[in-house]
Hints:
The protein has 462 residues and is an alpha/beta fold. The protein has helices at residues 2-9, 13-16, 20-24, 52-60, 93-103, 124-128, 153-157, 182-189, 194-200, 204-216, 225-233, 251-266, 278-282, 298-308, 342-354, 356-366, 373-380, 396-403, 415-425, 427-430, 436-450, and strands spanning 43-48, 64-67, 73-76, 81-86, 116-119, 169-170, 176-181, 220-222, 241-242, 246-248, 290-296, 317-320, 332-335, 459-460. It folds into 2 domains: 2-173 and 330-377, D-Maltodextrin-Binding Protein, domain 2; 176-326, Periplasmic binding protein-like II (D-Maltodextrin-Binding Protein, domain 2, 3-Layer(aba) Sandwich). It contains 21 helices and 14 strands. Strands 2-3-4-1-5-13-6 form a 7-stranded mixed sheet. A 4-stranded mixed sheet has the order 8-11-7-12. Strand 3 and strand 4 (81-86) form a beta hairpin. The longest helix is centred in the middle third of the chain and has 16 residues, at 251-266. The two termini are 36 Å apart.
Amino acid sequence: MRKKRILGLALASVTALGLLSGCGGGGSGGLLSGTQASDGGKVLNIYVWNEEFQGKFNENYPEVERLSNDKSVAYLKDGTEVHWIVNPTQDGVYQQKLDEALLKQGRAAADERVDMFLVEADYALKYVDPEVNVALPISQLGITDADIANQYRYTLEAMTGSDGEIRGLSYQATPGMLVYRRSIAQAVLGTDDPEVVGAAVADWDKFYETAGQMKEAGYYMYSGRADTARVYSNNVSAPWVKNDKTVVVDPNMMNWVERSMEDIASGVSHNVPGQWNDEWNKDMGPDSKVFCFFLPAWGLDVCIAPNVKDTAAAQDWAVCPSPQSFFWGGTWLVAANGTDNASQVRDIMLTMTADRELLRTLALNYGEMSNDQPLMEELAQSPDFGIDLLGGQNYIGVLSDVAATVDLSNISSYDQGCVEEFQNTFGDYFNGKISLDKAKANFEMSITERYPWLVGGGVEWP
């Protein structure tokens, strides 16, 4: 029972548990040795954690002929049915459900197999491991370097396995920026001009000088500690796990803890405990007193826009560089080993991530930073490009330089779990319910429960 639970929790544990030889013949074949990609399937199953990509696909993929009444199935022109399997990302649920399906891939009926699945940067490495062998190299689909020559290098490096093969493609680049409310900037700083506001938050010292002004005027600088956590976690000096056995808490994470406590005590932060909840959404709403949010381009359409639609705040936003560079997420499309819809998967991956006109549409209509570096550099210089949410501002101009310098060298397959558990277990400390030592102990316990194969290495603190 314990072995079954661990397998269901994470494919990353398979190598550590020594199960590759039993599934893949000596380890070189991985979990799905003997499983072949093929064509001819009538049902194409795509695993996702929300409906964001599903909506973009339904509205923009040219082979979609019609949708079911509830939009859960897309019918392609060749008769293929695209089915979406949606599980939430929180607490590792999406990965657990995907892992369980992939482990059954070799014996599943053709129309029940995973054909394509999506991953984020926080755990992408887990699925590109050639030893595990659950993701098809794009070269096996016939996708060439020339096909993806315009994509940002980091988006390809993120999905490159130890064998040098790329196993996923993204339609977006996700460098971060500061998204702020124009009316609050005008009231406190006397201007909403992005260059002036950018100078007022150009580094952390200036950010907190401006935060003091916001507080004096009756505003909060930002919503809550989760908003700044990613800026700190993106700027760590090493991965969360070393030697595949020891969890290492970077000093920058403890800097985040200290700074967050100061901001709660001073009233600079609104002290909203997380993201994707009602409190966080209200802090983006028309009656909010919160000045800014740390978001990538996709956050404009996914986070801000739904909370201000049809209100006076619908165009009350602008963007400028963050006081420290960061990125957030990114969605990669991965062809599952064993798909029986290889040709359709190839076309979806290429069309959604490398078709220039489609990528232009995503930038124009969805506030997306599309994964085409020459196109983004062109739009960054265009005086005609801008979106209504930002009062016509060209957000690509703010992000273009940052996107070319995103560094994923310290990313590991454990990032999502470690960051989630760190934030969750320190919650009671931020609320004054437990001591710092107790928060650390709670983190150590939670991380060994989430990743039981790491229990022998312990946790190192700065």
